[in-house]
């Protein structure tokens, strides 16, 4: 495919003292394999300049030799492996920047770490491990509670800097450190930085790829290995490129985009591959919308997802961390194993019907499907903007929901936003007020909640064979609890619209 | 002091990874790959695999450099379809069990594949039992998709299964199977799941180059793709055991 695509346009962040020539276009004609540039948080006046990647007619003479172009993912992994060049298929040892674990896999990962490195072993770097209890928190299940206690012991013993603990299960607000859903917390707490390698004991770790980093899920054993060594052996994945252009319709959200893509390529369409998203539509997405997109990369089998960092990314990240980072971007002559283009303006709201995330259908074609409940929550669809969207639709409709509508903010911060932030166009009402007026359930304690079923007493768990429209990420049999439960994956807009009619509903019914 | 292991610049090149198996996890084959341990955690215990006691596994421990011997699994088959995700293999409610805890490891095994829909009339582990009578799981495409929970290959191994033969695997499940050494993830070349039934008696023979699955009930034989570099890792008992055998991580101090 043509390598002259504008979509790989990088953004250059420069400090006021540097000349444009030094950090701008000239950095792409350096002979170094990896064209990177440093973004300093403390620069006084910062101009973000959009620069196009060099086109393929760049003459070899200026660079000294024909250079092999690398994709973003290849560059990140090469740098983390201290190599100047990697190609897909290479098995390389990679330095890990951040390892995340939670209450479900943490005990197992640390158990393996101790078994293999010794009871008195110390982790490779207590500041690079982030422990976020989030899965089974607000439950009476003793083993679940015990697992949080186990993590507390490990973190104390290892002096782990970032442990977002919870001790008072009856009142989440009484726990100042507690965050909630790990992938949202990682972003909110500034642990996601462009160019880094982030691993987590959870498949949706790929969410962080929205920040232009390599982020993927691993099992307990790999995590135990990383705990002791700070390294992991990875095979460099080839990259599939998805270029999304066009103006995003007002009724469409990134959940619709990723469901569209998964429906296109199937649940194994990206197995062992990187999914790289770019294009004008992507550039106009907020960070939370980008997170939703990358979140479901694993549902297509993808190893990781990436979005080139830009001003939006830098603005988000620099407000949350002072750790220096260096973004990287795909070269103009990088090789992609597949190229997909979408004109987003032509897309319509979609759902994934039971029982597979690739069982795509237009929302409007499912309007006869009667539903029993709606669930809005999870790392995929429980962020602040997800609730804002749902509230916006409820407000525009001015009606009450016809089915039980469960709301589970992903983190403490999201919960607070739901109760504090005014919803645009509503005359100053908060999401919480709008939800109450619409007859939704009271927003619950932040956690992963019923996205994956969980212990029997989990709030909003599907304990009967009901039909649920959900903003979550998987709908395989039994995912939310009952094996015969029928889960329709949808965007927050679609979920809200469906709650109002008691059937699967296209949000245009209420948004136009 | 953090235990840090510094890697010599690995010369593991692409040539070493199996060209036939695009999903092979080819970690430790290279004799060039070494860890120089600088600071070492003081109390290294010898690797004790909690699997050793319970399994009558034919796994042979040997050094990384030796070629793969013939290895055989024999027993009953349990046949499933496509896209068996890890929630079906081990539903989320059982994830409170910690696999590195021996009691809870056994309990995980008792719940293996309990998430399969009711259409699967024959259960993988009989209610009330802790182990399965099926040694070989036959799957379709994308086996083990979904969540990264390592509990998935662990519960299958804990239940007593020895190998999965599937058309294709999701990557995290494949990788976890290799890293834990709990179960052999083998690739078939055709849709074996369409030609086998639960309860068929089968033998798997793993050899250098031409591994096969023999269904004694139907009389048919199927070629399996070579497990490649992942094999010795599983044979050794997983990634840590292999790393020790290859001298990459120090063994226990005497």
Automatic annotation (TrEMBL), chain A:
Residues 1-24 are annotated as: Disordered. The keyword Flavoprotein does not apply. Keywords: 4Fe-4S, Iron, Iron-sulfur, Lyase, Metal-binding. SUPFAM superfamilies: Aconitase iron-sulfur domain (SSF53732). NCBIfam families: hacA_fam, PRK00402.1. InterPro entries: Acnase/IPM_dHydase_lsu_aba_1/3, Acoase/IPM_deHydtase_lsu_aba, Aconitase_4Fe-4S_dom, Homoacnase/IPMdehydase_lsu, IPM_dehydratase_rel_enz, IPMI_cat. The keyword Lyase applies. This is 3-isopropylmalate dehydratase large subunit, chloroplastic. Gene3D superfamilies: Aconitase, domain 3 (3.30.499.10). Residues 89-361, 364-502 form the Aconitase/3-isopropylmalate dehydratase large subunit alpha/beta/alpha domain. Pfam families: Aconitase (PF00330).
Automatic annotation (TrEMBL), chain B:
The keyword Lyase applies. It comes from the Eukaryota. Residues 12-23 have a biased composition (Low complexity). Residues 135-181 form the Aconitase A/isopropylmalate dehydratase small subunit swivel domain. The keyword Chaperone does not apply. Pfam families: Aconitase_C. Transmembrane segments: none annotated. Residues 1-11 have a biased composition (Polar residues). Residues 1-23 are annotated as: Disordered. Keywords: Lyase. PANTHER family: 3-ISOPROPYLMALATE DEHYDRATASE SMALL SUBUNIT 2-RELATED-RELATED, 3-ISOPROPYLMALATE DEHYDRATASE SMALL SUBUNIT 3. This is 3-isopropylmalate dehydratase small subunit 3-like. It comes from Camelina sativa (False flax). The gene is LOC104785047.
